[in-house]
Amino acid sequence: MGFLSNLAGKAPGAAAPLAPVPRPIGVIPHFTQHSTQIALQVREQKMSMSGDDFSVKDAVTGNTMFKVDGSYFSMRDKKNITDASGNPLFTVKKKLIAIHSTYVGTSPKTDDVIFTVKSSFSLGTKLTATFKNVAGDGQETELVLRGDLLDRSAEITTKDGIPVARIARSFVNAGELLFDKQTYVLTVAPGVDAALLLAICICLDEKANEK
């Protein structure tokens, strides 16, 4: 049993399910323990003076899985991601002195850097996340996001090109779930850290707000 509910099979025309990775990938082993792909409904963040907090939900069941501090880097220098019970997972900060937009995820307890996400010049959007694969082989690991920053359409792969996640405006499964324009769906492959992938999406949101 994983920490999230299993998803039902796919409907005709849906994208092929993401295959399990050979070994767990991530920084928090607990969030790699799902045996099927999972889908998270994420609210697109817009620049707002209110900066309200919001919940990230299982796209199928509607259960809250994570919570995100809704403040913006332009208003405050950090953003907090917690689990459903409010236990801190990451503090995400933007590095102010960097050639390309760079974000770091730090431990809320020690402030040690857990992962780094950097943007780079590309046709479309490209973000590269680097981290020590604590959940797997313990080696330095890269995940690369490529896609459309504004449409929230992207694929996240390993350095070798193995797909580990998708981002889209809709998620089609047995229920053919479609979401409004203010949300998008992050689908995560079995064995991949959903919390880390959510943090990469938050960095994508912040990058979009720079525009």
UniProtKB/TrEMBL annotation:
It comes from the Eukaryota. It holds the Pfam family LOR. SUPFAM superfamilies: Tubby C-terminal domain-like (SSF54518). Belongs to the LOR family. This is Related to DUF567 domain protein. It comes from Pseudozyma flocculosa.
